[in-house]
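Batch manifest line 424
LIGAND: zinc ion
JOB: complex structure
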Amino acid sequence: MKNLLTQRPRGTADILPQESARWQDIERTVRELCRLYGYQEIRTPIFEHTELFARGVGETTDIVEKEMYTFEDRGGRSVTLRPEGTASVVRAFVENKLYGLSDVVKLYYIGPMFRYEKPQKGRLRQLHQFGCEVFAAPGPDVDAEVIALNVEMLTRAGLQGVKVELNSVGCSVCRPQHRAQMLAKLTPLKDQLCTDCQRRLERNPMRIFDCKNESCQRVLAASEAPTILQSLCEDCQNHFSGVQNLLRTAGISFEINSHLVRGLDYYTRTAWECVLPGYSSVAGGGRYNGLVAEAGGPETPGIGFAVGLDRLLMILLEQQRETFVRAGLEVFVAVADVLAQGYSMEILQELRAAGIAADKDYLGRGLKAQLKSADRRGATYTVIVGERELANETVGLKNLSTGSQLELPRAALVGYLQNGGDKQ
Ligand SMILES: [Zn+2]
Ligand SMILES: [Zn+2]
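JOB STATUS: finished
ARTIFACT:
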């Protein structure tokens, strides 16, 4: 029998200290990039009313049909741990009347999501996503900018060779026509589709393009059902060519993939995925012009994307392609004599107050063991204080990578380190 006290739930992960540094790095990268692009952070609750996701994500999606963590709270209300970020952000946009700002609203979020999926490598039940949403900007220029931001984020994280696959999934004008065409072509072949696709045929036939079953794809090809690209209305066509032209201008390469419909029901017009050779999709997004109105707000266009961070970090680790700069311990203060204990405390506080990461030994070990510990912690310098340093108001300073050593007046220590130490 499993010991439930010493085993975490399936599909969850502990992010251990050596790994959390990588998480912090990527979070820093994301936040800085969002600042450059004019986005502000939004933090929504981890759980919401179940109806929000059922309506907002789409009742025919895998997420809503199979993957939600839904439960009754003690008041008998059905609540769900958020499986994705967009529905909550849209709800917050409407509830807090952010549309009243009568300007474009650019938001980003970063945090855990929950999906009851079959756990596998890089796919967890508690996953972490970074995502962006832009409201009230209808033109293709914002589509191109959001796609550019998505690519830039992956590139800055260290991925190379990211490609964009692009499609348009139409609008409330051209989708009903496309749907009718698909029904006409596929209804006679319904028996040959998988059970998921049989249901999709009635509710959202476009999603059959998304089915991973090869047999369904064969039926689809044989049916000669049109892709949505072949059925776009004029406005959607113009929007789509606008996006493509702007992407070319921005130097972002892309390929059209007319089968790309994404797993979510709410997309309109532009849909895209960022793919990497050998890994398929690493991020994706789309426009969702009807979602805000459906959530009870005024007619407001929206567009956004999300990146799965667990998977991104796993790929970076496999490719050993991180560009992050690791920020570790800068100074280890070693105490050579118990009399200097208080003196070392003062120095530690001075260093930390000056923004220098500093630590010490807490186990009363000998100097040799302390120096070993400093090395293991990856400190750049060791400050050594003993009886003599205490009497003279000085410190011994050792550079752990070069081995060079010198003695400094205590009052000069912070200034010396802030000016680059012995690199100056
Ligand atoms: Zn259209
Ligand atoms: Zn199928």
